[in-house]
Every structure is written in structure tokens, then in C-alpha cells.
Amino acid sequence: MMNKRFYLIIWLCCLPLLMMAATRQIKIDTNTLSLVFQVGDNGRFYQSYLGKRLHSQTDLSQLALGTEAYITHGMEDYFEPAIHVVHNDFNSSLLLKYQSHEVKQASDGASETIVTLQDDKYPVTVKLHYVAYVNEDIIKTFTEISHQEKKPVELQKFASSMLHFNNAHYYLTEFSGDWAEEVRPAIQPLFFGKKVIDTKLGSRADMFVSPFFQLALGQEATETNGEVLLGTLGWTGNFQFIFEVNQLNGLRVISGINPYSSAYTLNPNEVFRTPDFYFTYSFNGTGEASRNFHRWARKYQIKDGDKTRFTLLNNWENTSFNFNEEKLVSLMGEAKDFGLDIFLLDDGWFGTKYPRNDDRQGLGDWTEIKDKLPHGVGYLTEAAKQKGVKFGIWIEPEMVNPKSELYEKHPDWVIHLPNRDEYYFRNQLVLDLSNPQVQDYVYGVVDGLMTKYPEIAFFKWDCNSPITNIYSYYLKEKQTHLYIDYVRGLYNVLERVKAKYPNLPMMLCSGGGARTDYEALKYFTEFWASDNTDPIERLYIQWGYSQVFPSKVICAHVTSWNRNTSIKFRTDVAMMGKLGFDINLSGLNADEATFCKQAVKNYNALKPVILDGDMYRLVSPYEGNHTSTMYVSENQNKAVVFAFDIHPRYSEAVWPVKLQGLNPNKQYRVQEINRMPNARGGQYAEPKTYSGEYLMQVGLNLFSAYGTNSRVIEVTAE
Ligand code: GLA
Fold this sequence. Notes:
Elements: H1 2-24, E1 25-29, E2 33-39, E3 45-52, H2 57-60, E4 67-68, E5 83-86, E6 96-105, E7 111-119, E8 124-133, E9 138-147, E10 153-158, E11 161-166, E12 170-176, E13 184-189, E14 193-198, E15 212-217, E16 227-234, E17 239-245, E18 250-257, E19 264-266, E20 272-273, E21 276-282, H3 285-301, E22 312-314, H4 316-319, H5 325-337, E23 342-345, H6 376-387, E24 390-395, E25 399-400, H7 405-409, E26 429-430, H8 436-452, E27 456-461, H9 482-500, E28 506-508, E29 526-528, H10 535-545, E30 554-558, H11 567-574, E31 578-581, H12 590-612, E32 614-619, E33 626-632, E34 638-645, E35 667-673, E36 688-691, H13 692-697, E37 709-717
Parallel strand pairs: 22-23, 22-31, 23-24, 24-27, 27-28, 28-29, 29-30, 30-31
Antiparallel strand pairs: 1-2, 2-3, 3-4, 5-10, 6-7, 7-8, 8-9, 9-20, 9-21, 10-19, 11-18, 12-13, 12-15, 14-17, 15-16, 16-21, 17-18, 25-26, 32-33, 33-34, 34-37, 35-36, 35-37
Helix pairs in contact: 5-6, 8-9, 10-11, 11-12
This protein binds alpha-D-galactopyranose.
């Protein structure tokens, strides 16, 4: 009896400890990934593990404590912190202790873990959010910072996420470039010290470097092999990724808004919510990491991610600013004739006092140019309806030419220095979206057009200038809020547009592909990837974007860039993304026109595979003179393979392309499509049947020794 009581007492005494043990470890799982945190005896919060999913509960107790999860400024750490807060008494230290955590189902079905940390001396609270999309293997993280000090505190650093790694080797891939040469991958090993990728462009995330990266762990990753983390920040403004390796070869990755010139005054009880950082971790190379992102983005993130996309004819490359009603109506007829869904009127349709006949004036004045469009946009929407196509229109509502009525009326709405000469990027300046009045005006550009012309069915929303001459009349003494409040102001506007016009597809453009981030894509169905539409360059650019973004958001148009390539080559390249044409269709010869019309039909039939299927990058253009990519439907019954010869060497030997993602046990019919009307011969001109196993083990002969040659192969389960 005595014994039993003794054990009961011991057990009761231990119960709190056991319960502590349960709450002291927090595990966030997706299908293949675990992220494990522990609370130390000192009450602080540590990342113990990030890697392949751990299944055994007992193993978890073996994990070492690890590294403090969200490292603060002012304590004992000697490297880059995630957060830096200056308190009312000018003390700028922070020591965060675990308070509590909760797990809840997020509204979109994902599982969200919220960990509340609190400083032990100051009333500052930091909530770390981890949202796990279990089936897609994506984790979204963000941070909320708040306080109850008497007066505002100053936030100097405010990371969305901090992650820790312990590997022998790290290989970082960044995606850098410039206008017309976006997303060029460059791999570099990380050694002791810090590598920073950031931008300071204000109104856009990128121009010189994209807001995403790959981090291969242990060894370099390939498309199909290796451990690789793929991460991206959803923020349409200045971003920063810091990769810092310490003396023990531990790596921390800090992601968030670039704190450059952005110290933020936070009022008591106000919550500073950082943007989202999203990552996936693949154990089978970069291809799988991309597919995780593509599936997740279509299901959870991008506007109308589950819907199809429209093909279009744009007039920009064809007419530039030189058009009139008659010309536009004839282009609408051509769009219809070629089977395209939308006619998109680009820049140059507006400006009364300062007609926008080139890019030097008129931006900001969204009324039709009288001599170009005497009957207004309504006439065009009506004409489009009669021709049987939808009508889309270009706007750049956040910007202003100094030569405009808007600038004359509201110089204080413009970001520019009151006491210095203005500097122009493409002859324009940026409006101050931190100002709610300006937000109303920008919203009003869309709302005004939609109210007056409800038949408008598509917008191309452009943003050509980064913020220059940085000064806000509205923010007065809070100038360091401008970079952040600009982007928040933009989201306010986009939120209103989406709420009132939930079914309006919109393309996001930024002088090419400078606004390519997942927060913006909540509001946009697609983005313009680059002004460079040379199909050869596009093979590389689209390859770059496909690392993170699904094909349905990557706009790819057939244009006249690089006339040395055939219309077939250009169309085949554009068909790998969201297809459009921006070319003088009436200038095509009969065979070319026949080819294009058939290609549009093929594309429409294959949209479910190209836009919603799984993408496999088979042969990289960076590794030779050829490239190939394929798309496979979820049920593995349909696939399309694109293959391109770029610039083969004389008498170069070519190898079969091994397909991926098929069912090895199924029989597939293979046939070349998108052939020119006069094409002769070709191994797959007539249908042939192979097993999935054969196609993946032996492959198809898709490459040739001819320059700028292309093939599109349809693969259908029998
Ligand atoms: C930007 C875009 C182009 C076109 C022009 C119009 O450069 O990237 O596609 O819309 O603006 O001025």
C-alpha cells in the first residue's frame, strides 16, 4: 500500500514536468518535412531541427536544443539578429521567452502554429507564425510584433523569418539580372561571413535580383537530386535575404522587408505584421521544390489560381503609341480570326491636355486622347463585343509624368524632394501611396474606368519606375515609413479592387518582370515576365521564373523580337507559359497564319496540362545547346513535351530526351503537334505508342543539330 502511494505521489509530482516536456517541444510537419522547436530551461525558444520528417516521438527527445529561433539584438549573439527594437528608455536589447503556443486550422485548411514570445523586462510581444500546407510541403512564416510601452518604440529590424542550418556545405542560387535580362541563376558556395541579397527600389521587389533563392544543403542540387530549400518573400517592395555562416559553419537565413532606411515607429498596441516568407524543402532536387510551389500557388495563393487563363492579342510591340480607332478595331478582328480571347490596348490611349503620344507626358490623366479615340473607350468595348473578343486595357495608376494635369493639381501627391531637382526614371515619378487620398485616387483609376465602361474585361497594371527623389509630403517627420507604407498603401488599393471586382483578371507588369512576388499575385492572375521577348532569351527567362512560379502566371507573347527565328519557334516558346501575341498578325504569310491559328487551338486543348499540370524541366538551356520541358496532367494521362535546339555545334551528337512524371505501366500515344503546314517527315509525325517506362528510361529523339529548331509532342495515355 505504502509503495503504491509512494509511486502515485512521485507520478503526480512528475506530471507537470511531463506536461512541460510536451509543451516544451513544438513540431510543425508537412508530408515530408519537420520543423522542430524547443523551449530551453532558460525559457528561451530554440530551433532544434529542420529537415526530412521525423516520425518517432521518442526520437524527438534526443534532439539537441539547437539555436535560438528568432535572435534578438543586444544580447549575447555576435551575428545578424532577426529583430532590433529601441525601447522608450533608449535601451535597445530584447530577450524573448516562450509564453505559449497554439495550433489552429487556418481559414484555407492549412495548419497554423502561433508561438508567443515575450520580453522578460519590457512589455514587448513577438508572435511567430508557421502555417504548414501539409500536402504541398510548403511552410509560410511571418511575425507579429507589438508592445505596451507608454510611448512608441522604434523597430530597426523586423524579420519575417529566421531559419538555421547545420551542414558541411551550402550552395546558394540567386536569380539576378536587369531589365530584359531577368532571373539569371548563379550558384555560389557559402563560407564564413555574410551574403546579402536585397533591393532598394521602393515600388517593386526587383529589377536586379528576384525575391527568391535556392539553398542546396550538403552538396549542389540538380533537377532530380539533392536537398534544397526554395524560399521566397511575398512583398512588393524592398526585400532582404541574409545568409550568414558563423565560425562553427552554422548558417542562418534571415528573410524579410529590407530594413534599409525603414526604421518604423510602432505605437502601443499596434501590431507590426511582417510579410510572408514561404519555403519548401525538397529531398529530390530543384524540380520537386518547384512543383511544390506551383501546386501550392495554384491552390492557395494566386488570384484565380484554380481557373484557366485567356489568350490575348496586345498592340504594344505592333503599334507602340501610334494607333487610332480604326486600327484598333481591325486588330480586334485579327484577334478573333486567330482564335484569341482578349484584345489588350496598351499604353498611349489617354491624356487630354498632355496627350500620351510618347512616354514623356500624360501619365496620370486617365481620360481618352480625343484625336486618337474620338468615341472613347466605350466605342472600343462595343467594337470588341461585336468582333467577339473581350477588351482589356493598360494602366499605370501609381505613376505620374511631371507633364500632366495630375502633377499640376497635386504636386504634394508625388514622391519627390521639396528642395532638389527631380530625377526621372522613364520620364516619370511615383505617387505617394502612403497617403490615403492618393490610395483613393489610384483605386479610382480602376473603379472609374469600370464604372464608365463595365465591359472592360482585363487590366494590364504597369509600374515602370522605382521610387526616386524619396520624400513624402504626407508622412512629414515619419519619412522612414515611406518604403513600407508605400507597399501597404498599394495592398490597400488592390484589396479594394479585388473586393469590388473579384472576377476581373489582371496582368501585373513592371517594365518587364520587376514585380514578381507571391503577395502581389494574390491580386493578379499573371505577370509580365520580361520586355525581352526574343524567344531564345525567353527560354532562359521562363526557365528562371519557373523555379518558383507556375506557368499559368508567366505571360509569354509571340512578338517580332529576333526575326531570325521562325514563327513556329517563337510560338512554341510562348506556349510554355500564358500564351499571347503582340505582333502584326496581318504581316504573317499564309503558312505562318495557318500555323498560328492551329497552335492557338492546340494550346486551348492543352491548357489543362500546360497551365495546371506538373512541370518537369528535362534539359536545362544553361547546360548546353538544347532545352526541354514537359507538363503532365495530375492523373498522368496527358503530357506535352517542348524541345528546342538553340545553337547546336557543328556535327554535334544529340541524345534522346528522357521524359519524367509518367506512369511506367501505362501505354502512351506520342505525336508531334504544332507543325508548320509545309513540314515534311519527322520521327513522331505519325502517332507511335510506347510505355511510360520506355519514355522515361529510353526517351524520345527530340533534339537536332539545327539551330533554333523546335518540337512539341503530345503524349496521351491509351
Ligand atoms: C512597359 C511594359 C511594356 C509596355 C510599356 C508601355 O515597358 O513592360 O510591356 O506596356 O511599358 O509603355
